[in-house]
Amino acid sequence: MTKISIVVPAYKEQPNIRPLVERIVEALKENKKGVELGEILYVDDNSGDGSVETVEELQKEGFPVRMEVRKTEKGLSSAVVHGFKQAKHEILLVMDADLQHDPAHIADIAAPIISGNADFVIGSRHVGGGEVSDDWPLIRRIISWGATSLAKPLTSASDPMSGFFALHRDTFARAKGLNPMGYKIGLELIVRCGCKKIQEVPIIFRDREHGESKLTMKQNILYVCQLFGLYFAKFQLLIIAVILLLLPILYTLFF
């Protein structure tokens, strides 16, 4: 059996904490596929909504959950990175705090990392058997499609936007130039960690049960900025070569 750390970035998700923790424990109580629940680590951006008290209640009831509260830093991606650094176990799995990710898929996502058959595993909406629930808003579907299309040159994964994924701590340690901005930390890790063996596990993605989405126009702008950095990281030699080829032409035209 291999213990895993489940990292859950959160901001004002108090109503979802107890149901998510209970569902995770229930899903993994039979230790499916050699996966054992080591801990559930919430990284909270100082919500001040009773989240800390809810986690303390769950701890008293014996649930393997704890919370790191950040007071000087905010953002989902940086929360995930913080959680990885604080996690106790070598297998790291990330999922959303809003109940959109079904804990029933955790073992399937973690197993290929434990076996060494993959260095990054994604809970995917876009492979056979995966889907998005009918109640997910149309505008969110369009935004997701556009964001995925823009990322296609960076990875062969069909759903690099997914926030439900797993990797080994050793893979995370390979990250070069990690820039955790915005929400799409999975794509950032795939590129910056040089992940080659990527597997996708079908999941059913649901709309949140409580609270409001944190996706804003600011997050969309941050994603575009993130893409610029990732394109340069992946294709920097090609970009530099093109610039060097163009310099003589530009010099001829303007000097």
Q: How would you summarize what this structure contains?
A:
The chain has 255 residues and is of the alpha/beta class. The chain contains eight helices and nine strands.
Shape: globular
Question: Helix- and strand-based class?
Answer: alpha/beta
Q: Give the spatial strand order of the biggest sheet.
A: 3-2-1-4-7-5-8
Low-confidence stretches: none
Number of helices: 8
Major β-sheet annotation: 7 strands, mixed
Percent strand: 15-25%
Number of strands: 9
* Order of helical and strand elements: EHEHEHEHEEHEHHEEH
End-to-end separation in angstroms reads: 69 Å
Tell me the helix content. 40-55%
> What integer value in Å does the Rg equal?
19 Å
Average pLDDT for all residues: 86
Any overview of this molecule?
There is one protein chain. The protein is of the alpha/beta class. It has eight helices and nine strands. It has helices at 14-28, 51-60, 76-86, 106-115, 138-151, 169-173, 185-192, 217-254; strands spanning 2-10, 35-44, 65-69, 91-94, 120-124, 131-132, 165-168, 198-202, 204-205. Strands 3-2-1-4-7-5-8 form a seven-stranded mixed sheet. A two-stranded parallel sheet has the order 6-9. Helix 1 (14-28) links the parallel strand 1 (2-10) and strand 2. Helix 1 (14-28) runs parallel beside helix 2. 40% of the residues are buried.
